């Protein structure tokens, strides 16, 4: 409250007001908020720059990626070869030349149970391979109502 009410007894002397007027403080804070809201999107950099080339040696990558596939029948494949769960670690060591930092690309059939999928991930972890990349198909997003309208309706058989 900015002002106080005078008492009839006090005469011409005004009483001291010990309350802080927060209205100007709130006004300043709202103005600063609006300034930052307008300025924040403008602070992003969107300038095309032709960067110079670097002389640093690029990081070495393996020529052939290592794929582990979990099929619908729960069998495992390393590349194109079928392997047992017990021999997975030894086969990975052979293919990766013992490099435990090699990235393993893990792919699974969509009918595979999540628990079975996690068992294979645990097998890879127990074998010492911690860099596991999950592989999936990229697809365009389908509008929510489009999937329902494009699917043919099932007709009941008499």
Automatic annotation (TrEMBL):
Give the principal location in a single coarse category: membrane
Function text: Involved in the TonB-dependent energy-dependent transport of various receptor-bound substrates.
Source organism superkingdom: Bacteria
Gene name in the database record: exbD
Residue ranges annotated as transmembrane are: 22-42
Q: Give the UniProt subcellular location, in the record's own words.
A: Cell inner membrane; Cell membrane
Cited NCBIfam families: ExbD_1
* Membrane topology reported for the UniProt record: Single-pass type II membrane protein
Organism of derivation: Rhizobium wuzhouense
Q: Which UniProt keywords apply?
A: Cell inner membrane, Cell membrane, Membrane, Protein transport, Transmembrane, Transmembrane helix, Transport
The protein's name in its UniProt record: Biopolymer transport protein ExbD
Instruction: Spell out the subunit comment.
Output: The accessory proteins ExbB and ExbD seem to form a complex with TonB.
Give one Pfam family.
ExbD
Cross-referenced Gene3D superfamilies: 3.30.420.270
- InterPro entries xrefs: ExbD, TonB_ExbD_1
Q: Which family does it belong to?
A: Belongs to the ExbD/TolR family.
